[in-house]
Amino acid sequence: MNEQQNVYTREGLPVRPVFDMELLLGLLQETRLGGQVVEDLADAWERWLSLLHVLKLDTGKIRYLLIWLDESVEKEVDEAWAKSATEGFRLNALAQTMCMCTVYQAEPEVQDAGCAPAPRPTEALRQALAAEGVPYQEDGPTLSRRYAVLTHFPFRGACDICVLQPDCPKANGSTDAAFHTVELGLPPLPSEGENPEGGHVH
Q1: pLDDT tens digits for range 42-98
Q2: Number of structural domains the chain divides into
Q3: How far is residue 139's CA from residue 149's CA, in Å, rounded to a whole number?
Q4: How far is it, in rounded angstroms, from Cα 152 to Cα 103?
Q5: Which of 59, 82, 126, 134 has its CA 20 to 30 A from that of 146?
Q6: CB–CB of 84/120 below 8 Å?
Q7: Tens digits of per-residue pLDDT, 176-202?
Q8: For the domain that residue 144 is a member of, what is the CATH number?
Q9: Contact at 8 Å (CB) between 123 and 51?
């Protein structure tokens, strides 16, 4: 083992998230979807399950839950977005839903708290994430994979321990219904003159 691999241990968690239509509709800001749309989204969900990674990382002092979808999911969403803003928007929301459902299943307290707090990026954590192929982007707390969640494991608290608290709308009293506390990356906004149904999730 090289030095980078020695700084942490990893354990895969047997989590298989169930397709949560209510959560998806909330992200889409829709009340219902057509039968063919639902079928297409369910098919994508089944395909993406094999591209979902759920790990418990132990850096010696602190343990983390790391969830991410492969880069191929990002490319699929981007390709769909290039063809149709509506389709891309739906697939983007589906990927977010899969990550959120996975967090809720692995750590139910997150759903109750309404927040998956982001941990402080320590050097040991940086090395562990880099070894797993999901490094931080530059010096910030954002992960390199668009659809990814990193939080403490087991649950240790919500906003009070989140490194993003100073810039978080929820922690600063926002009541914006469109704000979701599990923040995930977004594909490019639609080109001029083309708008996805329901707007853009923030």
Answers
A1: 999 999 999 999 999 999 989 999 999 999 999 999 999 999 999 999 999 999 999
A2: 1
A3: 17
A4: 11
A5: 59
A6: no
A7: 433 333 445 544 444 444 444 433 232
A8: 3.40.109.40
A9: no
Does residue 178 lie in a domain region? no
Token pair of 29 as six digits: 């800001």
Asked whether residue 181 is domain-assigned, the answer is no
> Is residue 109 within 8 Å of residue 155, measured between CB atoms?
yes
What would the two tokens of residue 24 be?
A: 């998806």
CA 81 to chain centre: 18
Helices and strands counted in the chain (H then E):
7, 4
- Is residue 104 a contact partner of residue 111, using CB atoms and an 8 Å limit? yes
Residue type, 80: A
Determine whether 21 is exposed, middle or buried from the number of CB atoms within 10 Å of its CB (0-12, 13-18, 19+). Answer: middle
Order the strands of the 9-12 sheet from edge to edge.
9-12, 52-58, 63-69, 148-152
Residues comprising the chain, all counted: 202
Residue whose structure tokens are 């926002």: 174
| Domain that includes residue 111, residue range | 3-167
> Rounded CA gap, 129 and 63, in Å?
12
